[in-house]
Amino acid sequence: MQQENKIYLSLLYDFYKDFLTERQQKIVELYVNEDLTLGEISQELGISRQGVFDSLRKAEITLKNFEEKLKLADKYYKSKSIIEEIIKRLKRVYEKYGDEEIMNIINSIQEWQENV
């Protein structure tokens, strides 16, 4: 699996992991978060490398299917991008006018964004 696909799988996992079986969750966590190879995962879990591959593939299909239907990750990252652009624009306005209320708004947005 390419690194980009691994990152995408990690993002989808953050949104939809509860829809996977416990075994699939463990395999995906070891693969994307611990960066273990299929062979290392098979040794750790005591299953065949092919079993790891099959479970990982099924988990990936499940995650992609949920994203295709719900688009939660897509909406989240689009919103995040829009918010970052708004903050950038507000900072320019603050630099131009020095209005502390604008800085308070920027700080409120950033605080909210950290908690989402």
Please describe what this structure looks like.
The structure is a single chain. The chain is mainly α and 116 residues long. It has six helices and no strands. The model has no long low-confidence stretch (mean pLDDT 94).
Could you state the CATH homologous superfamily of the largest domain? Winged helix-like DNA-binding domain superfamily/Winged helix DNA-binding domain
According to CATH, what is the class of the largest domain?
Mainly Alpha
Uncertain regions spanning at least 5 consecutive residues: none
Reported for the largest beta sheet, the result is:
none
| Principal-axes shape call | elongated
Q: Domains counted in the coordinates: how many?
A: 2
CATH topology of the largest domain, which one?
A: Arc Repressor Mutant, subunit A
How large, in whole angstroms, is the Cα Rg?
20 Å
**Cα end-to-end separation:** 30 Å
User: What is the CATH architecture assignment of the largest domain?
Assistant: Orthogonal Bundle
Estimated share of beta-strand residues: under 5%
Number of helices: 6
Tell how many strands the DSSP assignment holds.
Answer: 0
Protein name: UPF0122 protein OTK00_000967
Family: Belongs to the UPF0122 family.
Pfam families: UPF0122
Function: Might take part in the signal recognition particle (SRP) pathway. This is inferred from the conservation of its genetic proximity to ftsY/ffh. May be a regulatory protein.
Summarize the topology.
Layout: H1 3-16, H2 22-33, H3 38-45, H4 49-70, H5 72-97, H6 100-115
Helix pairs in contact: 1-2, 1-4, 2-4, 3-4, 5-6
